[in-house]
């Protein structure tokens, strides 16, 4: 991985939360969904999602509360690399 794609442990766990194991596809999630699926605290999820959105790996699908996040094409490629 190149340095621009260096992700810390929390970012990787948050990124993996977008993969739905039984459906075997990427799904959109709220921050509460990411926390439940990854086992991270809500504060760690907020920071991880902010960092992932800054790197353009995650984007907000809606501006409503709760906000729904989805992976960008760049994020989908990164998830594929992380899942290997």
Features:
84 residues; 4 helices; alpha+beta; Arc Repressor Mutant, subunit A; two-stranded antiparallel ribbon
Please provide a written account of the structure.
By secondary structure, this protein is an alpha+beta fold. It has one domain (3-83): Orthogonal Bundle (Arc Repressor Mutant, subunit A). It has helices at residues 9-16, 31-38, 42-54, 73-83; strands at 19-20, 25-26, 29-30, 58-60, 68-71. The strands form 2 sheets. The protein has a 3-stranded antiparallel sheet with strand order 3-5-4. A two-stranded antiparallel sheet has the order 1-2. A hairpin with a 7-residue loop joins β4 and β5. It is globular and about 35 Å long. It starts with 8 loop residues before the first helix and ends with a helix.
Give me the secondary-structure topology.
Elements: H1 9-16, E1 19-20, E2 25-26, E3 29-30, H2 31-38, H3 42-54, E4 58-60, E5 68-71, H4 73-83
Antiparallel strand pairs: 1-2, 3-5, 4-5
Helix pairs in contact: 1-2, 1-3, 2-3
In short:
This protein has 84 residues and is α+β, with helices and mostly antiparallel strands. The radius of gyration is 12 Å and the shape is globular. The protein has a single domain (3-83), classed as Arc Repressor Mutant, subunit A (Orthogonal Bundle), CATH 1.10.10.
